[in-house]
Design brief:
Layout: E1 2-3, E2 12-17, H1 22-27, H2 29-39, E3 43-49, H3 54-57, E4 65-68, H4 77-84, E5 89-92, H5 97-105, E6 110-114, E7 124-126, H6 134-143, E8 169-173, H7 185-197, E9 202-205, H8 212-216, E10 225-227, H9 234-243, E11 246-250, H10 253-260, E12 265-269, H11 274-277, E13 284-288, H12 302-305, H13 315-318, H14 322-333
Parallel strand pairs: 2-3, 2-5, 3-4, 5-6, 6-7, 8-9, 8-11, 9-10, 11-12, 12-13
Antiparallel strand pairs: 1-4
Helix pairs in contact: 2-6
Amino acid sequence: MINIRNKMNKKYKILVIRYDTIGDTIFAIPFYRELKNYYKKNGIIDVLIDYRYKCLLENCKYIDNLIFYEKLNIKNFFKYIKIFKKYDKVYFLKKSSSFSTIAFLSFVKNRIGFNVKGNRFLTKSFYYDESKHISNLYLDLLRAENIPVKNTNLENIFILQKPEYSYEFIAIQAFSRTYLKDWQNEKWKIIIEYIINTLKLKVILLGSEKDYNEYENIITNKEMVFNLAGKIKLEETINLIKNCKLFIGIDSGLIHVASVFKKKSILLNGSTSITHWHPLNGNCSIINKSSEFKCYPCCFLAYEQKNNKCLQTAKCMQAITCDDVISKINLLIN
């Protein structure tokens, strides 16, 4: 655990479980703010988070402590029991059979979350409405407890260094953790060539280590295109997004980092629900051809996954053309 604010004199101790994915961590920021504003000096708000995403929340003034997630096993089971015993309330912003069971065994008095398969022994459970945006759904947990929600907006909680960039660039995240979200490589190649040859702008490619080789297959000019996937820390990635001229991506974590900065951005969306996970960014232009496909959305929403028939690039993503993307780029750049 790291102590962020050293305010351990507070009375009511609350733990929030939301430990993975960049996007959902960002979507929870309004939840942390409204929860903290309600308890103010009378409550400690701690969050269980994956250490990889520490930089997303370490400067958040609405959180007092970060507890770093460790995969549950026999060795750390009683360690978690000891940790959970300290809390008066636990919120589950994701389903977790293991941690909801630990909260029960730790005699946490208030265990609050969504009524989904995986969450067990909750004292208060609420319907997971997939027709709502995930950020607003988190806030519904507070509304159900009569905790006032005065502000639903995303805000910038990042404290970053200010590096000097001697050139303008467009940042791209082309790949995600599931192929159903991804666009075709040959189309990305056309977009990158258009940016560097027609717009005369450099391109920075972002993502995880597993994306590096995929990017290498679509790069033809390494003086204008920089493949940084898996080569830099998340903090550096966030800094690059903050300073880019335009961000282009699929439905994955970094498009939501761009939202924090209200960055001009383009989202190529197909298989995931745009209602449930759209970027909280008025400057994001969304390209979506889902109306042409009855199977939309097929990715992550439990009641639709069984209908997925795409074994390669999702048909709804294939329907997005290079002209669609180039038109948006020209509109936003100009």
